[in-house]
Amino acid sequence: MRTIGYTQPGPVSAKDSLVETEQATPQIGRNDLLVEVRGLSVNPVDVKVRSRVAPEDGIKVIGYDAAGIVKQVGPDVGRFKVGDAVFYAGDLTRPGTNSELHAVDERIVGKKPQSLDFAEAAALPLTSITAWEILFDCFALQEGDGIGDSLLIVGAAGGVGSILIQLAKRLTGLAVIATASRPDSQDWVRKMGADQVINHRKDLASQVKSLGREPRYVAGLNATGEHFASMVELIKPRGHIAVIDDPKELDITTIKPKALSFSWEFMFARSMFQTDDMVEQHKLLNRVSELVDQGRLVTTATKNLGPLSAATLKRAHELQESGKVIGKIVLDGFDR
């Protein structure tokens, strides 16, 4: 089968930063599906891994979102059958989705929304899992909770922010304050449903206070180190901060006077450690799929670069590294 990967970490500008290769069809495990990849998307984690992580076996294939058709099932699979259309985010410890065929544990796979094409569906899994776990695991909210409270989302125009706004508005009573720094990104987060929009290039605390709000919840999606002091200043006592990025250092002791809670959300934790509740990702993806087909959620795909190739995937990585991506960059599968 065809795959796209890299032989050594480095900048995307390197001639061989991403190359097409031929590899054997994956052998599936007892709980695995073998999926023909029809759509995929690019996330910040793709860029981080490609630029930092050396391959262990000559070449590393990455990619952490896919939608496709089940071609084969393992002997213990009970949730899917051959021919099913699925979508999922994969497992950081296994080969990625930048391939014709991909093996994945059924417990982290959902049924693809029928109303979306494969590339549109592939925009959603990783970011939906992340956003869902922020709301319902980190913040421990139940659906319908949050009436009278606010959620501040720092860096809201990217993939996670785009679906986090929607989930918060559709499934909770929270008012959403979204940060975005450019006119086009501000327009986008309003389209996703944000109640109020501020500019994270300016002082967060003063802007939030000027809105007359004191958020109980803050989601830091990027530049957490830059904004952490403001987050602590503006949040309600006994509030909760959840972050997904990698600040070099945080003075966590500053949250003590307000008795704040702090969480790091990492959606790969369940699959990496084969947790007892790993199947929760299957359940939440099915719920997201239902919400999409009901018209309550929309895809966050904003740019489709066409069929997967070394050139189109490299372009997707370049755009992701620019820091100006709105929503999600998607691709179709390899030309068949």
Distance between the termini: 11 Å
How many helix segments? Answer: 10
Structural class: alpha/beta
**Largest sheet features:** 7 strands, mixed
Q: What do the pLDDT scores average to?
A: 97
Please identify the top-level CATH class of the largest domain. Answer: Alpha Beta
Taken in chain order, the helices and strands follow as EEEHEEEEEHHEHEHEHEHEEHHEHE
| Oligomeric state of shown chains | single chain
Unreliable spans are none
List keywords for this structure.
alpha/beta, 10 helices, globular, 336 residues, Rossmann fold, six-stranded parallel β-sheet, 16 strands, seven-stranded mixed β-sheet, 2 domains, Quinone Oxidoreductase, Chain A, domain 1
Briefly characterize the structure.
The chain has ten helices and 16 strands. By secondary structure, it is α/β, with parallel strands linked by helices. The longest helix is centred in the middle third of the chain and has 14 residues.
Commentary on this structure:
The protein is α/β, with parallel strands linked by helices. It folds into two domains: 2-124 and 275-332, Medium-chain alcohol dehydrogenases, catalytic domain (Quinone Oxidoreductase, Chain A, domain 1, Alpha-Beta Complex), CATH 3.90.180; 127-264, Rossmann fold. It is built from ten helices and 16 strands. The strands form three sheets. Strands 3, 5, 6, 7, 8, 15 and 16 form a seven-stranded mixed β-sheet that branches. The protein has a six-stranded parallel β-sheet with strand order 11-10-9-12-13-14, sandwiched between helices. It has a three-stranded antiparallel β-sheet with strand order 2-1-4, with no helix packed on it. It starts with a strand and ends with a strand.
